[in-house]
């Protein structure tokens, strides 16, 4: 049995509204830690999340992990993580995740804090911290986003967004731009519809600046040249805000 993103976020908001005291190992409306928020929500939705902390959850209970390069990669109901690298101040990865440990998988990042995306436009990230629940309105130090696996969330992210139905992008309220990026190739397709099978498209050069019309998870609506409100896969866009003085 699993739940939906909407129900998951609703129960996370119970924690935000109750403002429990931050205490490690707890997950209720009186005392709660950061991973306790998603644990509480899933429990109230009839789903069990057994975890020893954020490092365990990141390594075992999520999928579609991606670096947060802008709000365009976020989706309501995502888990988001802060992390520290070896040698960085505050780094405290438990021994079982280090080389030779029982849970070692080659990843030496210390995922030290977790939150939940309540909304994308405007951005709202809710999380449990000291002394109580907090809502962030900027990306700040949040570095990673991920979907809870289907065992927990039934409407999780697409493993192949080019072939699955698109989620309608959220219109932006202020002028935003992005740079077209790609690991290989010189062009990226901008399509008339949010579908990898749409045959009506234009090629946009890598490095071009485009205007964001509406933020999306798999697809983002953009404006480039004469094409207004066409679509490009979100992973090919690096959001740069208003674009002033950045490129």
List keywords for this structure.
mainly beta; endopeptidase fold (from Nostoc punctiforme); 2 domains; 6-stranded antiparallel β-sheet; 12% helix; disordered C terminus
Short summary:
This protein is mainly beta and 247 residues long.
Structural features, described:
This protein is 12% helix and 34% strand. The chain has 247 residues and is mostly beta strands. The protein folds into 2 domains: 5-148, endopeptidase domain like (from Nostoc punctiforme) (endopeptidase fold (from Nostoc punctiforme)), CATH 3.90.1720.10; 170-239, SH3 type barrels. The strands form 4 sheets. Strands 3-8-4-5-6-7 form a 6-stranded antiparallel sheet, covered by helices on one side. The chain has a 5-stranded antiparallel sheet with strand order 14-13-12-9-15, with no helix packed on it. Strands 1-2 form a two-stranded parallel sheet. α1 crosses α2. It is globular, with a radius of gyration of 19 Å. The N and C termini lie far apart (47 Å).
Q: What is the topology, as strand order, of the major beta sheet?
A: 3-8-4-5-6-7
H/E series: HEEHHEEEEEEEEEEEEE
Number of DSSP helical runs: 3
Radius of gyration: 19 Å
């Amino acid at each position: 049995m699993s739940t939906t993103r909407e129900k998951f976020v609703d129960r996370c908001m119970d924690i935000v509204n109750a403002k429990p005291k931050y205490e490690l190992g707890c997950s209720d409306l009186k005392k709660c830690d950061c991973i306790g928020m998603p644990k509480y929500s899933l429990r109230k939705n009839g789903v069990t999340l057994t975890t020893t902390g954020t490092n365990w959850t990141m390594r075992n209970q999520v999928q579609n992990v991606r670096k947060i390069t802008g709000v365009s990669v976020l989706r309501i109901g995502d888990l988001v993580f802060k992390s520290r690298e070896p040698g960085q101040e505050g780094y405290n990865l438990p021994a079982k995740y280090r080389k030779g440990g029982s849970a070692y998988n080659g990843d030496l990042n210390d995922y030290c804090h977790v939150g939940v995306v309540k909304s994308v436009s405007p951005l709202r990230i809710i999380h449990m911290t000291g002394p109580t629940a907090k809502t962030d309105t900027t990306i700040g130090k949040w570095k990673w986003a991920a979907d809870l696996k289907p065992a927990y969330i039934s409407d999780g992210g697409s493993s192949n967004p080019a072939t699955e139905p698109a989620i309608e992008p959220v219109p932006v309220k202020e002028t935003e731009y992005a740079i077209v990026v790609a690991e290989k190739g010189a062009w990226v397709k901008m399509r008339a519809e949010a579908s990898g099978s749409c045959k009506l498209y234009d090629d946009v050069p890598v490095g071009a600046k485009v205007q964001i019309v509406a933020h999306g998870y798999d697809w983002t609506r953009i404006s480039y040249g004469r094409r207004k409100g066409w679509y490009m896969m979100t992973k090919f866009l690096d959001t740069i805000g208003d674009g002033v003085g950045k490129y």
